[in-house]
Specification:
The complex is a heterodimer.
Chain A: H1 13-31, H2 39-45, H3 57-82, H4 95-99, H5 104-125, H6 129-138, H7 142-166
Helix pairs in contact in A: 2-3, 6-7
Chain B: H1 2-20, H2 25-32, H3 38-60, H4 79-94, H5 98-107, H6 112-137
Helix pairs in contact in B: 1-5, 5-6
The chains are: A mainly alpha, B mainly alpha.
């Protein structure tokens, strides 16, 4: 199955997984930081709201590294586009386009709703795929195991319901 | 200097996510439909390689520059389960988790901007109601401070 961006097959999973591990270990060994991306949402919120939750010391100390790291994620995605098919605005949504022919406004609304769940859920759980799923599991932390099982269950249930029941997807 | 290091590590991370399928809507759905091994292989390999690495770094006890290793542990509470479930629903709907939201914006996927807007609003709502839900979910008390030092 080709990637939506490059129209080429993806990296082998073992290569990608090892690369992710290398970055995670570099963050810890070089900078004493535990990988975690969703806390970056708090860092961004902390610039526009004075709510106590966003004035925690952990948020303020994390901004120094998490915001540059997140800027890197943007650059990495941009370079990936430039070095393959060239950067261009993309609206393609693969399987969702086949199941539901949403227009631009519909896609933005769909993604905004998904984002609400992501933002609220990761804050309530205290982390996402990176902080709980990769770093937390690698460090044998019980809250991370519980959270990882929970978000995999939530994702599997939702996609199975959407594609197998609502969309009658024939894979 | 350290800021540059974070940008470079983020760039490498983002490039890998972009090219691996982790930032691709179809691959996320194929994972949750049990139709592709790709994402399970990526996460499994990442954990299998990171775990012994973290163990070795903790055993050494010091960073490359000689500072003592301090890993901030995440608290255990009822929010791990409900928050995880809600995040999973969002990961399925958007086809991206937090890292890939940023990667997809960089790639030029316009709709990822809406996912980011939603995530920031979702995080803001959580921050606004923290005081009301803190006790039931047994969330930790807020440690306020400037983060200096």
């Amino acid at each position: 199955m080709p990637l939506t961006l490059t129209h080429m097959p993806p990296l082998h999973w073992a290569v990608a997984g090892t690369g992710i591990a290398a970055v995670t270990l570099c963050l810890l060994f070089l900078a004493n930081r535990r990988l975690g991306i969703s806390t970056g949402f708090e860092d961004m919120c902390s610039f526009v709201t004075a709510l106590p939750y966003f004035r925690r010391s952990s948020v303020r100390s994390g901004r120094q590294w998490r915001l540059p790291f997140v800027a890197g994620l943007l650059i990495g995605g941009f370079l990936s586009a430039v070095l393959s098919t060239g950067w261009r605005p993309i609206w393609d949504l693969g399987m969702l386009d086949q199941a539901l022919a949403l227009g631009p406004i519909g896609k933005l609304a769909w993604m905004f709703v998904g984002g609400l769940f992501i933002g609220f859920g990761t804050r309530l759980a205290g982390g996402c795929t990176s902080g709980h799923g990769i770093f937390g599991l690698s460090n044998f932390e019980l809250p991370s195991l519980i959270t990882t099982i929970s978000f995999m269950a939530g994702g599997i249930a939702t996609t199975q319901l959407l594609y197998r029941v609502v969309f009658h997807w024939q894979g | 200097m350290m800021t540059l290091l974070y940008v470079l590590l983020g760039t490498a991370f983002g490039f890998i996510l972009s090219r691996s399928g982790a930032a691709d809507y179809n691959y996320i759905q194929a994972m949750f439909l049990f139709e592709r091994f790709q994402l399970y292989g990526i996460i499994g390999t990442a954990v299998a390689v990171t775990a012994p690495g973290v163990w070795l770094i903790k055993r050494r006890g010091r960073t490359a520059a000689g500072r003592s290793i301090e890993i901030e542990l995440k608290p255990l509470h009822r929010g791990n389960i409900l928050g995880g479930l809600l995040f999973g629903v969002g990961w399925s709907i958007a086809g991206m988790c937090p890292g890939p939201i940023f990667v997809n914006i960089g790639e030029g996927k316009v709709y990822a901007l809406a996912a980011l807007a939603g995530a920031l609003v979702g995080a803001g709502v959580f921050g606004a109601i923290y005081g009301q839900i803190q006790q039931w979910f047994r969330l930790p008390p807020l440690a306020l401070g400037t983060g200096d030092g």
